[in-house]
Each structure stands twice: as structure tokens, then as C-alpha cells.
Amino acid sequence: MRYHHGKVTTHHWLRWYRSLRLVQMCSSPASSNNGHRHHLEVTDHAERSKVMSSAEVVSVMKLSQTVTGFTLRVADQRLTFKAGQWLDLFIPGVEVVGGYSICSPPHQLVTDRTLQLAIKSSPHTPTLWMCTQCKVGDKLSIRVGGDYYYDPPGGVEHGRHLLFIAGGIGINPILSMVQHHVHLQTQQHDQTDTGRVQVLYSTKSRDELVFCDQLAELARSSASLMMSFYITREKSTANQERSDIKYHRINRDDLEQCLSRLQPSDNLTCYLCGPQQMVDMITTTLEQLGVKNSQINSEKWW
Ligand SMILES: Cc1cc2nc3c(=O)[nH]c(=O)nc-3n(C[C@H](O)[C@H](O)[C@H](O)COP(=O)(O)OP(=O)(O)OC[C@H]3O[C@@H](n4cnc5c(N)ncnc54)[C@H](O)[C@@H]3O)c2cc1C
User: Fold this and answer.
1) Given a cut of 80, is residue 245 above it in pLDDT?
2) By alpha-carbon position, which residue is closest to atom 39 of ligand 1?
3) pLDDT (0 to 100) of residue 6
């Protein structure tokens, strides 16, 4: 195993994993990942912590028809993470390693040694296990990794505007980052000019908008934070429950409106996570509207 600045690179794991996949593909012609690349391959480039910890499942909760939420209590005190990072998840008896973004903020781990995941059901082996078999008391092993995170070194940066855009279950790293930002703001002595923050969160249906209430509550607690929700495959009804939910895909007009609130745009940093087409479309549009590519950070799960 190779260490780089105290971190473990994935080459060792990837070699082990590829040999495992070869055995799996030979024994099972119907690939369990529907032809997609697995987490260890997708994140081959990313750095990982050298701390591998055991973690006990302390709650399992259905968040929507397709999404299940998990709380894990982490055994090893040395395990820490930055808002936006993910876990390699090792499930006893399941050969394929899962990969899931942490949706809770880092200060929760400090306070009670727990972190949270939200997993969307899929036939992918570890995902299927988590969503159908995992129960309270189960023991898993976890390791933190990833280069996509929000961790301003001196606390909230003065005058720095933030634009967070999430599609579907891509909300997970964004939720952690937004909670971390609000937490940092509350710690700040000087709360003037901490910049404006805009969150756009889009899903197919109202049921899939699993963190809508939690985010709306955060927005109520922070004057600089604005939320907009989008539902793309359901129509609004006459007695539509909330005025902050729009019924269309995030489009150029929405982005233009956000950017006008987040001026000057030189002070803007964007964080995106969602399906590939959405991330590509939004990146292109933001660039057309004058945001530099270096200001846009996106987490790619493909
Ligand atoms: C770094 C990383 C973090 C991840 N975090 C999570 C997580 O927190 N929760 C979770 O349920 N799954 C997460 N995944 C996906 C998970 O590891 C599996 O890839 C997924 O369960 C496999 O589903 P599928 O093969 O059926 O792919 P599909 O559902 O068919 O999706 C195709 C690809 O697009 C990606 N994708 C689909 N929708 C989104 C979206 N809204 N945002 C971003 N990418 C998307 C999928 O990960 C997959 O690679 C993550 C993957 C990676 C690489």
C-alpha cells in the first residue's frame, strides 16, 4: 500500500478490486452494476484517509420510496472528515465495496461520534444490501476519502458567495456542506458580510425531495441562506403546498437570477452534485453566464 502525505492512494485497493471483479465477472455473466463502473474505479484518483474504522448502524429510516437514511456510530476516534467527502463502505460478506457521500456535518461526528448516509435503492450489490438487509446493530467498516469538500481554513470567508446545486441523491454532500457553513457562521464572532448562499435542489418528484424540510429550516436560521426547490416530473396542483417549490428543471433563467444575487461573481464559488447530464448542463450555462470553470467544483459519481 502506498502512502502519500499521510494518505493511502487507491492503487493497492484497485488492483485487489480488479482481480475480485474478474472473478465476479467470470462467475456471474450478468454484471451486478448494470455496466456502470464501481465506486473504487470511479474514485481511483482520489485520496483516502489511512484510518479504517468499524461503525455500528444505530438507525435505519425510510426517507422516501427509494431512499433510506442510516446513522452510523464510528468507533475510531481518529476518523474525521470534511463536509462533502464520502466513505468507502465495507459490508461483511459483500465483496463489492460501496461508496456513499456523508450527508451529516463534521461537527455531528465531534459531538456524538455519529455520521449519516442516505442511499438510493439500486441493484448495485452494496446498495441493494444497505437498502434491503441492513439493520440496527450491524457492524460495517468505513474509510473517508475524496477531494470534493467545503472546508474554509479560517472559518467562513468574508464576502465569499456560495452557490450549491444538487440533483436527486446528489444532495448528500451538499447538505453536509450547507450545514457546515451554517455551523461555521454561528461560531463566527464577526457575522457581518459573511457572503450570500444559494441552494438549488432538484428531484423528479416531491417524495424524492427528502431533505426539503431540513434545508428550509436551515434557511430560516440563517439570513444569508436562500433555498429553491425544483420538481421535474410532477405537475403543480392548484393547492400547491409551498411557494418555494418550482415545477420545472433548473434552467438558464433560474441560474441568471441566482447570479444576480451573488454579485460580484468574482467572489463566487459553486458546488454541484447530481446526474451527469444535469451537472454538464449547469456547468455549461454557468460558464456562458460568466462564471469561470475554476469557480465550479463538481462531484462526479460516474
Ligand atoms: C463518490 C461517490 C459518492 C456516492 N454517494 C452516494 C450516496 O451518497 N448515495 C447514493 O445513493 N449513492 C451514492 N453513490 C452511488 C453509489 O455508490 C452507486 O454507484 C449507486 O448505488 C449505483 O447505482 P446504479 O449502478 O444503479 O447507477 P444509476 O442509478 O443508474 O446511476 C448511474 C450513474 O450516475 C450516478 N448518479 C445517478 N444519479 C445521480 C445523482 N443524483 N447525483 C450524482 N450521481 C448520480 C450513479 O452514481 C451512477 O454512477 C456514490 C457514488 C460515488 C462514486
Assistant:
1) yes
2) 275
3) 39
For residue 235, what pLDDT is reported? 85
Pick the atom of ligand 1 nearest to 146's CA: 1
Q: Which is the closest atom of ligand 1 to the Cα of 173? A: 8
- Extended beta strands in the chain, E state: 3-4, 7-8, 48-62, 67-74, 86-90, 98-101, 114-120, 139-145, 161-167, 197-203, 225-231, 245-246, 268-273, 296-299
Tell me if 34 CB under 6 Å of ligand 1.
Answer: yes
Structure pTM?
0.89
What are the sequence ranges of the domains in the chain?
3-145, 161-299
Average pLDDT, integer, range 58-80: 98
List the residue whose alpha carbon is closest to atom 43 of ligand 1. 274
CATH architecture observed for domain 161-299 = 3-Layer(aba) Sandwich (3.40)
**What atom in ligand 1 is closest to the CA of residue 38?**
19
Identify the CATH number of the domain defined by range 3-145.
Answer: 2.40.30.10
